Amino acid sequence: MMQDVDKAIESAVYEMVDGLGQNKDLATKILSWMDAIHSGRESLGDRANVAERIELLLNGTQE
Amino acid sequence: MTIDIKLVGWSAKGFRCPDHEVSLLDDKESPYPVSLIQMPNGTGKTTTLNLLRLTLSGAATTKSPSEIKQYAKRVEGVDKGIMEVKLSVNDSLITFILVMDYSNGKAIYKTTKGSGQVNGFSPPVEIGKFLNPHFIDYFILDGELANRLLKHQSAAQEAIDALFQVDTLKKISQLVHDHWSIETAGQATTEAGHTLRRNIVLDLSSKIKLYSDARSKLQSEIEEILTKIEDKKSAFDDAIKNNESQKTALFQLKDRLSAAEKLQSNLTAQAFEASTSPENLSPIFGHACINLKAGLDRVKLPEAAAKEFFEEICDELECICGEAMTPEKALTIKKKASQYLGSNDVTLLNAIKTSIGERVGSDPERNCNEFHDLLKKLRDAVRDVSTLTIEYSELTNRAGNEDPAIRQAQESIVNLTGEYALKLSHIERFDENDDSEDTHCISILKARLQLAEDRLAEITNTRALKNKTDKLQNILGLAYDKASKKITHEILQETNANILKWLPDNDIQVDKIDGHLWLKNATEGSVGENLSVAYAFLSTLFNRSTHSLPFIVDSPAGALGNSVRRQIGQTIPLLTKQFVTFVISSERQDFINGGIETVVDNIQYISIFRKKVAGYLFEAMKVPNKVITDDGAIVYDKNFFYKFEMDEEATL
Questions:
Q1: Does A44 touch chain B (CB under 8 A)?
Q2: What is the pLDDT of residue B22?
Q3: What is the dihedral of CA B521, B523, B525, B530, to 10 degrees?
Q4: CA B420 to CA B431: how far, in whole Å?
Q5: How far apart are CA B87 and CA B113, in angstroms?
Q6: How far is the CA of B529 from the CAs of B318, B381, B537, B559, in angstroms?
Q7: A23 at the B interface (CB within 8 A)?
Q8: Any alpha helices (H) in B403-441, and if so which ranges?
Q9: What is the rounded radius of gyration, in angstroms, for the C-alpha atoms of chain B?
Q10: Fewer beta carbons under 10 A from the terminal one: N or C of chain A?
Q11: Mean pLDDT value across residues B622-632
Q12: What pLDDT does B421 receive?
């Protein structure tokens, strides 16, 4: 369980990822990023970090 | 990770409120679950609460100089105010210090964590989402709280978003979209664009295949024709050999014709080469070049001028530096001068002059005459070839008339040569450098195909990225809606359960949370009901999260009737692990005795007032647990708390 992400968010992300036929790993990547943001380890203002995270998400998204 | 935040205490010095230091710790050094702070109106209660908000949110740096100066103590010589607030975060002490510099109208922060102090407002990352200007008002509350949550368009939703940060999903979605925009800036992205580019590639590919096949076929046919021509020529030669009357003359004429053709070819090449030199075409060019050369001979070059400059310096009695010119110095200057005299210009001009001399010489007419002689020789050679061709043709015709085999070979060669020329003209279309829209040039079409394939690949990649971006944004958007609705629904259920528990007889419930709290069957509750609903909502909010925050409330019972006071008094302490409230003496009745005191045992009683309130200062001096500052008194005593009867500050 993500420490800094509410369980409702966690279950919603998993549900939507699964519902749209995507791999479960994508949900993990989204929640891992949210957890890093909420805990203050990463910031949405860090452009380089944001670009890396988005590349990870897009690589984990199936067309 | 569970975060337990408690207010440990604060000190204020140099502000409009009396200088004071408040500790909320009990004998065991733990914060009291309930701290009641009694301050008469006019003592600086609002100032103290605002300072708590500013110190714990970092917002003071955004205040204007005039706003900063409004906090200054109205006493001469006070040029700064210092507010120090201590928090316990999971039992670790963190101190935030706000210094207001009144003379410069600036605010600065310092933060102490553990043993180190840093400049600036620097809360630990795990509590940063609470200690900011957007969230601070949800746990340092004022009398407007209920109104905001029940009437302000989005206050309740903002509180939910700030605490649970569901909107991070929306923020990520926006960043994903921004990423897509940056990656595809200036590229075609539509389906129509993709179809267009794919069709261009297909069209070019099919054209190249069609033309390449046609060219190969023509090439084969041409090679076949050439072979046939060679065969027919052999047949012709064989037939000639059998014609005794004509063969000698024919072979001789053929040799002459070959020689004439060779000469014509050589002369053509020479004439072409000579025509590229303008001095051969007209003597005007030659004369102009000779004039240019003469002019270059006369011009005084920069090098010469510069050289003279150095020589003149050497001839002077004094150098330009002011020292006497000695023979040794003069020699050195002359020796070194060459280092500063560039020779590139001179070399170039000399090369021009030499070239003019070689190409034009001294007689421009001679070049033209030689060129005209060459042209005359070429004309003669062309005429000779023409004459010999006609003669050879006549002779072969005559031989053909005498011998059908020769005639047949001759006709075949003529026909095949015509056919060859035609095929050659057809095949040239595929090789000539024609860059028009309907070109048949295969190499140009291949270059166009490469470009079109690159552009198709670009839009294909873009489409893949677009599809992924759309899918990801869809997931994030749907997850936001679902999570937001789920959290909101659960908070609504729990809020109503709390309201039912705390106000069982009031029949008041929250119907929905849509921006703000909407009450069921009523557009507006009483002041007490609204407060209860607001507190129930915040309590639910805070209890659901893994964080525990203090409730710091200004005058929670001021506008309430006695019965509601009791209800609120019995309710609020249960909402939170730490309840700190600022009250005036008239709020005590029913809210504290009959309210809070019926549900909590361990209560802290604090009275703060200005020293000028002489009557109570005298009483305070008798109390052992007190602090007297330059202009204020802080008394930690329950009896004193109840004896203190003053809503508005006055001098007694």
A1: yes
A2: 95
A3: 110
A4: 17
A5: 10
A6: 106, 121, 12, 12
A7: no
A8: 404-428
A9: 53
A10: N
A11: 90
A12: 93
pLDDT digits (tens, 9 = 90+) for B513-564: 888 888 887 666 777 778 778 888 888 887 776 678 898 988 887 767 777 7
Interface-testing mutation among B169, B171, B172, with chain A (most A C-beta atoms within 10 A) = B172
CA dist., res. B14 & res. B98, Å (int): 12
Q: Which domain holds residue B91?
A: 1-128+549-561+577-643
| B355 falls within a domain | no
- Interhelix angle A24-38/B168-183, nearest 10 degrees: 110
A3–chain B Cβ distance below 8 A for any pair: yes
CA distances from B69 to B15, B74, B79 (A): 10, 10, 9
Q: Across the A/B interface, how many CB contacts are shorter than 8 Å? A: 99
Helix (H/G/I), strand (E/B), else coil: B420: helix
Instruction: Please list the residues that pair with B606 across neighbouring strands.
Output: B37, B636
Give the separation between CA B618 and CA B596, rounded to whole angstroms.
29
Q: Which residues in chain B have their CB less than 8 angstroms from residue A49's CB?
A: none
Separation between Cα atoms, residue A35 and residue A39, nearest integer Å: 6
B207, with CB counted inside 10 A (0-12, 13-18, 19+), is middle
With a pLDDT cut of 90, the percent of chain B lying above it is: 37
pLDDT tens digit string along B300-315? 556 555 676 777 778 8
Structural tokens at position B13: 């010095």
**CB neighbour burial string for B489-501, b if at least 16 within 10 angstroms, e if fewer:** eebbebbbebbee
- Which tens digits make up the pLDDT trace of B170-184? 999 999 988 887 877
Residue B104 pLDDT more than 60?
yes
Q: Given an 8 Å threshold on Cβ–Cβ distance, is B483 in contact with A22?
A: no
Q: Which amino acid is at B508?
A: I
> Which of B652, B618, B624 has its CA nearest to residue B638?
B624
pTM: 0.58
Instruction: Dig out the tokens for B372 from the structure.
Output: 């005209």
Residue of A nearest to B472 (CA): A61
- CA of A41 vs chain B CAs: smallest distance (Å): 8
Q: Are A11 and A30 in contact (CB under 8 A)?
A: no
- Name every residue in B having a CB less than 8 A away from some CB of A: 1, 124-126, 128-129, 164-166, 168-169, 171-172, 175-176, 179, 464-465, 467-469, 471-472, 474-476, 478-480, 482-483, 486-487, 490, 545-546
d(CA B540, CA B91): 23
Rg (CA), chain A: 12
Q: What ipTM score was computed for the predicted complex, to two decimals?
A: 0.97
**Structural domain tally of chain B?**
1
Contacts of B469 in chain A (CB under 8 A): 58
CB–CB contact A20 B474 (8 Å): yes
Are the beta carbons of B164 and A6 separated by less than 8 Å? yes
Q: Please say if the pLDDT value at position B463 is more than 80.
A: no
Cα(B646)–Cα(B583) distance, rounded to whole angstroms? 11
Q: Residue B7: which CATH number? A: 3.40.50
pLDDT at B321: 76
Contacts of B179 in chain A (CB under 8 A): 50-51, 54, 58
Condensed to tens digits (0 to 9), the pLDDT of residues B210-240 reads 999 999 999 989 999 998 998 888 888 888 8
> Distance (Å) from the C-alpha of residue B211 to the closest C-alpha of chain A?
38
On whether residue B121 sits in a domain, the answer given is yes
Distance CA B206, CA B597 (A): 92
